[in-house]
Amino acid sequence: MQFSELIRISIKLFLLLTPFFVLTVFVGLTDGMPHIQQRRIALRSSFTIWATCIILYFFGNQIFRYLGITLPAFQIGSGILLLLSGIELVRGTVMKSLRHSPEDSGDITVVPLAIPYTVGPGTTGALMVMGAVQKPLTGWLIEIFGITVAVLFIGALLYFSNHIERLLKRKGLDILSKLTGLFLCALATQLILTGIKVFWAQ
User: Fold this and answer.
1) What is the number of structural domains in the chain?
2) Which of 32, 120, 195, 196 could disulfide-link 76, Cβ–Cβ 3.0 to 4.6 Å?
3) Cβ–Cβ < 8 Å for 63, 128
4) Is residue 8 part of a domain?
5) Span 26-38, pLDDT tens digits
6) Three-class SS state of 102
7) Residues 48-98: tens digit of each pLDDT
8) Which domain covers residue 188, as residue numbers?
9) Rounded to an integer, what distance in angstroms lies between the CA atom of residue 184 and that of residue 182?
């Protein structure tokens, strides 16, 4: 039961981190760099993504209390943001804007690769909602491990980006990004409906 829950959380978070969109962005931003430099950036970005997710997960409840925001309100709000992110991925508008606005040539590890391309507003909201829900110790451990597994898979995609790009080509990555967008739209709809249900129950 716990193993199946771990798998479910890992897959959900993996999709929330928009893996194939991030892979496409990473390939574009590191184009022309030596392989060893690309892999260093992949490792640093993976650690930054994991640290950001853990911070958002643990401090979500405190942020709710400080700002006086109820959990259903945040579920609905973050669900709307996640839905917009999913729609942008499906329509390809994010990639179009990236191709017409080259990034700064400085360090891309934290900004823009980790934040906001990987851990965007929708992912931030979902992580804060997860951390704010009361659960037993095993629930916390499973979710933390699920976050770690999802980020490890993201890191593996970035680390082996050259091989994956040769295998799938840019068009293949774009198609997978759109499919990820569809999953995000479904997750966002579920988040919004859950928030509305809890709000009316209260």
Assistant:
1) 1
2) 195
3) yes
4) yes
5) 987 888 889 999 9
6) coil
7) 999 999 999 998 778 777 888 888 888 888 889 888 888 888 887 665 655
8) 2-197
9) 5
